[in-house]
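Instructor's aside before we start: the two examples that follow are unrelated to each other. I chose them only because their records fit on one page, so don't look for a connection. First example below.
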Amino acid sequence: MAPPFVHSSAVVDDDVRIGDGSRVWHFCHVSQGARIGKNASLGQNVFVGRGVTLGNGVKVQNNVSIYEGVEIDDDVFLGPSCVFTNVLAPRAFIEKKAEYHPTRVGRGATVGANATIVCGNHVGPYALVGAGAVVTRDVPAYGLVVGNPARRVGWSCKCGVRLPDAPRPRCPSCGQSYIVEGEVCRPAPHAESAPDPIPLVDLRAEHAPLLPALVRAFERVVSSGEMILGEEVRAFEHEAAQTLGVSHAVGVSSGTDALLVSLMALGIGPGDEVVTSAYSFFASAGSIARTLATPVFVDIDLNTLNIDANAIASVITPRTKAIIVPHLFGLPADMRTIAKIAAAHGLFVIEDAAQAFMAKTPEGPVGGLGDIACFSVFPPKSRCAR
């Protein structure tokens, strides 16, 4: 490794150590007792105070002042004109050397141009201090801070790229994964960082074998100019009714609207009660409230997560008019028991089958087991039992 280089215009005091491969450029002043590691670089007009330590690979840009009491770890980048103080309340006419507050910048951190690090506040490893920021409290490792006073606005990868805002972010540049817990960010173990997580819903994989048919259907609709209703919707309604073994199928704008239309068609309104599951998508209860009726919740069967059919009878009152039965995760609810309860009390049964298209029961497919059934074609919700 080459010996250190010191420009002829630079001033280096006595008892200074500069490591091999380091470079001290024009008009720098390195004060007595300073320690500079290997392969460091001090740009023009840099001041290094008495006893300051700079680690290996440190890059200091032009016009930076690093005062006594500061310690810079390996591979730190200090942007142009950034400043480190060493006294909280300096006075020109009062000696305050005994009040110096130590400051440390951790390995691999970056301090942006014109930033100020107020003494006594430490910058954690691989943190990133934005340009012009004024650091008045410790910056956590991998923290990204900006402003005056500096505030954390995110997390920075070791490679310097901002991480996505997530509990388990993955760097979009280098692929390193992290774990974020409150004000702590740390790299994930290698086993967590290497493979991409398996998605809960992978629509690309599901659509791949159907892609040619989906594209043809899209082209037919665009070519027809019928974006609402039209022949494609009529064909879908006919095929859906045949598949489910029912007389009619009607397309509406969403599964939520299907529930609302069903309640309105059955005359459900103010003063009525509708029994439904305590565990379902918001629309199951929200559509009841939209009609100004009252949702009455029943707990779930822990084995299926569907409504506990045996608990329905206990909540029925003279005002009860209907039961909305969600079939969750492609698993049908106990429709045999529910049908008996509804018949005994003269209640309508609405199947909320948004998550169970084509799911089968001994009595037939869901959708043909109550008075009305509601489905959804929103891709992540249309799941059928296997």
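Example two begins here.
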Amino acid sequence: MSTLPIVTDILRTPEARFAALPDFPYAPNYTTVGGLRIADIDEGPRDGPVVLLMHGEPTWSFLYRKMIPVLVAAGCRAIAPDLVGFGRSDKPARAGDYSYRHQVLWLNAWLEARDLRGITLFCQDWGSLIGLRMVADAPERFARVVLANGGLPTGTGPVPRAFRLWRAFARHSPWFPIGRIVKAGCAAGLRPDELAAYDAPFPDARHRIAARVFPGFVPTTPDDPERDSNERAWALFSRWDKPFLTLFSTRDPITRGGEKLWQERVPGAQGQPHTLIRGAGHFLQEDKGPEVAGHIISLIAR
């Protein structure tokens, strides 16, 4: 395993910030990797099929509160980590400590420490950029993949205008309200208490550094430093014959249509019941969580 980065200036969101989360009664678990504490929610039977729920930007595991109960009721073990810089996980206080590569290293180390196997990966947004690399780095740990509103860009394709605008906003706007940003990506919106829950991990600007810098790490040019690693991951998926299912939203302006590339290039995607999630925005876990969980359960049952 590659050497983990050394981080010396670390922030930790006070636990009191998470005292009134609606519909999210789950106690966090903590794993320390490279001096950083990574939080995760781990619910359901220990011997149930593992469903790894990877969130994106600028959310955290709270995003999965509508899916976890459905998965657990079906006998699955639902595990939702918080990426470094998000949720209850530690937050490096310097922007220079964050990178795409570092996130992959941290989550690979977390996965190895947790020693999870037979995993069904569900990934969306940055959860897919990181999660799909985790699969490529340890394919023996994964039994199947469900990709939703995400991908594995190499910097050689077109960049959607909606993403360019989002990246510019994250980089330059003096106003960066996390909860309102998530709400804008939901077709159904959010209640005030849900909006507050998305704000909870980020009490001030220093805690929001990861959310600010992540859009700039998406490979958008051929000379991106992560292009080679993502192309190596694509090479693996071009041979991937385990089940691979796509669940993309009809109302996501950033990733809409991105499922076709995976359906065409991944052998394990052939013959799968790929589904367009109608009426859902970018954060389909919010808009159609139980429906999405149902598709995961059906895939495992097959």
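The longest strand covers residues 36-43.
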